[in-house]
Amino acid sequence: MSNRVLIPALKARVGDWNYYICVMKYAQVCKQIEFAHDLGGNVDLGRLIQRGITERTRDITEYLLKSNHRFLGALIVAAWGGSPKYLSVEMENASGVLDGLDNAFGVLTFDDSVRYFALDGQHRLRAIKDAVRIDPSLSNEEISVILVSHYDTEEGRKKTRRLFSNINKNAKKTTPGEDIALDEDDGYSIITRRLIDEHPFLNENGRVIVFTKLGNSGEIRVAGGTIPKTDKKAVTTITTIHDILVNLGFGLHPSMAKRTIRPPEDVLDESYEVLKSRIDDLLERCGKWKEHVEAAASARDVRAPLKNEGAGHPMMRSMIQRAITRVAAQIISQGISWAELMNRLEQMTWRIDSPPWISVASVKEGTATIHTSRHYASLLDAMLTVHLAPNSRQEIIRARKSFKELHNKSYPVTEEELAKKLIATDRESEVKI
User: Fold this and answer.
1) What's residue 222's pLDDT?
2) Structural domain includes residue 290
3) Are residues 195 and 234 both part of a single domain?
């Protein structure tokens, strides 16, 4: 046959499927394997699917082009219209070494008579095709391919759809927390782990929640963004630290923003020192957060003192840690220096029952409740901004109005008091008027 290619393969069986495992070069993948929507059906729908695939594979393409550690999982491919052409190969066994092995070794024949489409791994396939087009030297890279049969009949289509559905339903995507714990390319994940290991405050046992237990069978998962109110040691979680570092990453080397490509080691070291310094400033200047924790018998006493939770320290709440660093980045972008921002943070009242923390905290009969919905989070950002560096009186008016609408009461800090923190350029314009 014209354009015939022979590829070594293993034959296997599971359930009612015969399948084949082989290794293909990227050049062969680009030539032989297509997308399902390329093989027929609604043209507009095919274009829509193709657009979605393309938009979601740019990071994978860049990863293939730039990372020396690139590696992709196997593609699952179906042969359109029938069984793959497989020929078993017998091996000489004079010494008896191969006794007990069946005839699962062979070769697959790829030619123009059968077409193949990706059943699972369309984003990887698109990225491979794009990467090879940009850099042809990648043509000799290799990827594992699992090949199954697909018959273009009602029963065949039904069987293939079921396989596609089962693959996607049963595939367990890693959680954001697992990515932070394991990712060796995202600079912020790398620095998060280094901070937990090396920072003299955060590396204390239990200070950062990394894993949480599920059920009674011993299974664990990486911690999310919530600290249990009664936790006696924790001040934050691994996912919250990662979010904080991303928020505080302004001014770092541009390679830190490319989350799928590991930054150079000197950039990682430099970024670590900058981010560690900013964390140290927050620990000291945000109501002497670190000092309170080190002086207390229990972190719970700082977070939510028994029968007096209104006196709890706001920075012991993950939601507030993220909000402060998120707003800090926004304020820095408007021209306020980091040193000036720290001075303004230091002047705030660091009790959960005080403004602006009451945007998300309700205290009743000695018990504090933190509201974590999107509306409350947005309100906290707005109130933090007008307490620290409002851009205009209109921004102050809007924030106070939002508080009243959400809490059904007036904000206890007046417009005039908040206006004292107006950014200088805005105050000068008010004077000129």
Assistant:
1) 74
2) no
3) yes
